[in-house]
Amino acid sequence: VQLQASGGGLVQPGGSLRLSCAAAGFNFRLNTMTWYRQAPGIQREFVAEITSDHSTNYADSVKGRFTVSRDNVRRTVFLQMDSLKPEDTAVYYCKTVYRSRNCWGQGTQVTVSS
């Protein structure tokens, strides 16, 4: 299983970023894909997920600002992040479960600062 996250960067408060996570090594269309984030000194936390039938769930802290989507042809999951706040600053990871194991990508840094 390979998960490659990209799209992070530095953005001002109120701005937007779109993260991508390209997947390989498993039957992507059948898997739930999940985004997590981890800020310095804070435990990794759930952000959003999208199931195989495109149902979505969000953490309360991002609901209404972030949108998770997937493209099964491109084997990629996206996280559109709007109205970004300084507290969204973190390393963002994508995750899936394969053969009962959590599989993580390498993470992409998002920094929200003026």
Number of helical segments with 4 or more residues: 0
Distance between the termini: 37 Å
The count of β-strands is: 11
The fraction of residues in strands falls at: over 45%
Mean pLDDT: 97
Given helix and strand content, the structural type is mainly beta
Helix content: under 10%
How many strands, what sense, and barrel or not for the largest sheet? 7 strands, mixed
Compact description:
The protein has 114 residues and is mainly beta. The protein has no helices and eleven strands.
Label this structure with key terms.
114 residues; mainly beta; seven-stranded mixed β-sheet; four-stranded antiparallel β-sheet
Q: Secondary structure elements and their pairing?
A:
Blueprint: E1 2-6, E2 9-11, E3 17-24, E4 33-38, E5 45-50, E6 56-58, E7 66-71, E8 76-81, E9 90-98, E10 101-104, E11 108-112
Parallel strand pairs: 2-11
Antiparallel strand pairs: 1-3, 3-8, 4-5, 4-9, 5-6, 7-8, 9-10, 9-11
Structural description of this entry:
A hairpin with a 6-residue loop joins strand 4 and strand 5. The chain is 0% helix and 54% strand. The model has no long low-confidence stretch (mean pLDDT 97). Strands 2, 4, 5, 6, 9, 10 and 11 form a 7-stranded mixed beta sheet that branches. It has a 4-stranded antiparallel beta sheet with strand order 1-3-8-7, with no helix packed on it. The protein is mostly beta strands and 114 residues long. It is built from no helices and 11 strands.
